[in-house]
């Protein structure tokens, strides 16, 4: 068997990506997404979309995604390969010049579905063979008008804060004791706590929603309780960030912040609100459940 040819696509042959049969079990296609290149008005850039070819047949493919203004990919969120071609998939990831996190989308409860479990484990094994390491599994939520709209608790007050340095200070306090795997990974890196806080701030600015939406939360005695950031990412309205400072924990304020964020977005016309949290972050998962957010997907992150 000849070695596959591994290369990026070009605007003239981007349609090659769609000649591969989509998985009905995991990945973006399983949830109604379709690959469309920017050459055809879509969101995937041909030079960030790679295929492994044996002859004229696509046997593995991967697409890295970035926002409209990004000069490099943000994440790998499309990766699959033909039966028996896991090594071709791994080799594709090794050769592609992008060192970005892999977000594998799976259905809720995927471990209980043999077909979905096999599809997830095959992709995780191939990504691991390419040098990636599992980072975290996350619940993905989606509030819709069919869900009850949680009522504001009235326990906190919310005020905009125009000074990024004040926002950074609150983010440092939130991340000084965090259950979030991505924040902990940043803290363990060379930039420490400062890098973790700035990564969050950079994400807030990256979102195309207004800066004026960000809110600090205050207790009745005027102390900062936390921060909540209603946002729009390129896919739509979302809970951009919820964080309670350590000294205000133990009162269930994460729920208050989530409820405020949800109501604010609905008041801005949102017809759905997406959210996510690490599966190991039990307090935040409980807040989403209490607020009526159903788990719609589980995402497996490798870095």
Structure characterization notes:
- The strands form 3 sheets. Strands 1-2-3-4 form a 4-stranded antiparallel β-sheet, covered by helices on one side. A 4-stranded antiparallel β-sheet has the order 5-12-6-11.
- The chain is of the alpha+beta class and 303 residues long.
- The chain is built from 7 helices and 12 strands.
- The longest helix has 16 residues, at 114-129.
- Helix 1 crosses helix 2 (114-129).
- The protein has helices at 86-95, 114-129, 164-175, 181-188, 192-206, 253-267, 282-290; strands spanning 5-8, 49-54, 57-65, 75-81, 102-107, 134-143, 157-159, 215-218, 224-233, 236-244, 273-278, 295-302.
- Keywords: Acyltransferase, Transferase.
- It is an enzyme of class 2 (transferase).
Strand order of the largest sheet: 1-2-3-4
Mean pLDDT: 97
Query: Got a strand count?
Result: 12
* Oligomeric state: single chain
Approximate helicity band: 25-40%
Structural class: alpha+beta
Sheet with most strands:
4 strands, antiparallel
Radius of gyration: 21 Å
Tell me, what's the shape? elongated
Order of helices and strands: EEEEHEHEEHHHEEEHEHE
What is the helix tally? 7
- Percentage of residues in DSSP E strands: 25-35%
Distance between the termini: 31 Å
Model regions low in confidence, pLDDT < 50 over at least 5 residues: none
InterPro entries: Acyl_CoA_acyltransferase (IPR016181), GNAT_dom (IPR000182)
Organism: Streptomyces sindenensis
EC number: 2.3.-.-
Protein name: GNAT family N-acetyltransferase
């Amino acid at each position: 068997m000849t070695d596959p040819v591994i290369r990026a696509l070009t605007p003239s042959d981007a349609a090659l990506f769609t000649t591969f049969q989509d998985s009905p079990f995991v990945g973006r296609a399983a949830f109604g997404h379709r690959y469309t290149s920017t050459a055809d008005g879509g969101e995937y850039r041909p030079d960030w979309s790679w295929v492994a070819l044996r002859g004229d047949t696509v046997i593995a493919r991967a697409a890295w995604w970035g926002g409209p203004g990004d000069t490099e990919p943000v994440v790998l969120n499309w990766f699959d390969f033909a039966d028996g071609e896991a090594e071709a998939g791994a080799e594709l990831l090794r050769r592609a010049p992008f060192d970005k996190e892999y977000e594998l989308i799976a259905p809720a409860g995927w471990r209980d579905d043999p077909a979905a479990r096999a599809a997830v484990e095959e992709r995780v094994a191939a990504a691991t063979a390419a040098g990636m390491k599992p980072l975290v599994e996350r619940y993905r939520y989606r509030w819709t008008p069919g869900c009850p709209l949680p009522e504001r608790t009235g326990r906190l007050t919310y005020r905009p804060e125009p000074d990024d340095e004040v926002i950074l200070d609150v983010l440092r306090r939130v991340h000084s004791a965090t259950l979030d795997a991505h924040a902990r990974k940043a803290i363990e890196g060379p930039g420490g706590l400062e890098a973790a806080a700035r990564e969050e701030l950079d994400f807030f600015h990256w979102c195309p929603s207004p800066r004026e939406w960000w809110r600090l939360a205050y207790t009745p005695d005027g102390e900062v309780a936390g921060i909540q950031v209603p946002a729009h990412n390129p896919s739509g309205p979302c809970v951009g960030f919820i964080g309670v400072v350590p000294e205000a924990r133990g009162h269930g304020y994460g729920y208050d912040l989530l409820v405020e964020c949800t109501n604010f977005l609905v008041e801005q016309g949102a017809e759905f609100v997406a959210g996510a949290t690490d599966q190991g972050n039990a307090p935040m998962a409980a807040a989403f459940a209490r607020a009526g957010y159903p788990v719609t997907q589980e995402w497996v992150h490798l870095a």
